[in-house]
Amino acid sequence: MRMAKQKKPGKKGRDTQDAIDPQAQAEAMARGMSESAQQIWLAGVGAFARAQSEGNKLFESLVREGMGFEKTAREAAGHQAEAMREAVESRVGQARDRANETWKRLETAFETRVAETLGRLGVPTRADIAELNAKLDALAARSPAPTRRAPARKAPVAKRAQPATPRKTVGKSAKSPRASAARRPRTS
Fold it and tell me: Where in the sequence does UniProt note compositional bias of the Low complexity kind (predicted)?
């Protein structure tokens, strides 16, 4: 047979106390929550007071940081814009050079063809004319100076013709036989 255990008196007292104190526990919990809510409220009020006092300082520091960032951004954008402008100018310059070269080639080809065509037609070139002028100058230098002649006489000026006078028209006095014949009815 077994012996029954004896219960310790300390445990029984605690069990009874725990069972009796739910209200005390609720009050303690409510008190703890109230204190916690009070602390949260005070922390919020403290944060608001600090934000008010440091708000201007914070705002001014944010403005300074913003200005610094804007300056940096503008400088970067300016450098990029300058690089783009230089690239565009370079491309435009290259295109202009190519267009000028093409134009010069077209001009040369045109001048060559015109000179060839004029040569086929027998039109003298500048070089031919310069050569002829040189020959004429050489001939003029060899021959003696011509004597002066008297100026040529002027031909007499022809008189102006007078305008023709209008002709007189002869009036019809009698009716022509044809006109009267045209008016007669035909008999057929």
Answer: 139-164
CB count in 10 Å sphere of residue 115: 13
Residues listed for the chain: 188
111 contacts 104 by C-beta, under 8 angstroms: no
Tokens matching residue 49: 């007071």
Rounded Cα distance, 27 and 21, in Å: 10
Side-chain half-sphere exposure of 3, counting CA atoms within 13 A: 3
For residues 52, 57, 59, 64, the Cα torsion angle rounded to the nearest 10 degrees is: 180
Q: Which residues of 18-32 are buried (b: 16+ CB within 10 A; e: fewer)?
A: eeeeeeeeeeeeeee
Tokens representing 23 are 């209200």
Q: What distance in Å separates the CA atoms of residue 20 and residue 73, rounded to the nearest whole number?
A: 72
pTM over 0.70: no
Q: What angle do CA 179, 183, 184 make, to 5 degrees?
A: 120
